[in-house]
Amino acid sequence: MRILTLAFLFITACGTSGDLHTIEIECSPDDPPPQQVDAELMVGDLTVNNQFIEEDTIIEMSDVSSQILFQVALSIDDLFDYDHELLRIEFTSDYSEWVGLSTAGTTIYETREDCLADTVYCEEIIVGEGTSGYFEVADGMLAIQNAYCRNTGETYGYQITASVFNIEPWPIEEISEAVSIQIVCHPDPDMSQTSGL
């Protein structure tokens, strides 16, 4: 009972001058929520010259291309007082593939069921998932994540989503709303017919 009474006295004395039977405790106000940054996603290609060339979100593939690689970049409108070296950007997507391992090698499957039907081991790969820092490029600063379209013979799409985190405090703080971009993977029959012209 004495422990409970003391705890009650400590709580009621918090932030007050107290009386002869209480101890004054200095209470700090609750920390304000972190300032939110505005972020935007783009699709494109980061060149060897460290330039990001923005491209369309519809990824065209010819019959001879089994896979098209590209990058998704996140840009922040205003960093405020955040240290860019202590920012991490988490990317994920709603699309996955399954890599199956068998005696014949590895094979890519669209579903877990198809993978398990043919192979002895299956591992899920979430396309476009990863973590990036926020670093300088030729025209500013970006976070970069690799992604791809695989030529399945049919048009399909998926959504990549990203959020910005500040890892300076503990626990780390999410300092942006989640932003998303829609990717469309489109096999273009006209490209294979005109590629030699």
CATH-defined superfamily of the largest domain: Immunoglobulins
Task: Please write the string of helix (H) and strand (E) elements.
Answer: HEEEEEEEHEEEEEEEH
Helix content: 10-25%
**Main β sheet profile:** 6 strands, mixed
Q: Please state the average pLDDT score.
A: 84
Shape: globular
Report on the structure:
This protein is mainly β and 197 residues long. The protein has two domains: 1-30, no CATH class; 34-95 and 126-194, Sandwich (Immunoglobulin-like), CATH 2.60.40. Helices cover 13% and strands 46% of the residues. It has three helices and 14 strands. It has helices at 2-13, 112-118, 189-194, and strands at residues 39-46, 52-54, 58-61, 67-76, 87-93, 96-102, 105-109, 121-126, 130-133, 135-137, 140-150, 156-166, 173-174, 179-187. The strands form three sheets. Strands 3, 5, 9, 12, 13 and 14 form a six-stranded mixed sheet that branches. Strand 10 and strand 11 form a beta hairpin. It is globular.
Overview in brief:
The chain is mainly beta and 197 residues long. It has helices at 2-13, 112-118, 189-194, and strands at 39-46, 52-54, 58-61, 67-76, 87-93, 96-102, 105-109, 121-126, 130-133, 135-137, 140-150, 156-166, 173-174, 179-187.
Key attributes of the depicted protein:
single chain; five-stranded antiparallel beta sheet; six-stranded mixed beta sheet; Immunoglobulin-like; disordered C terminus; mainly beta; disordered N terminus
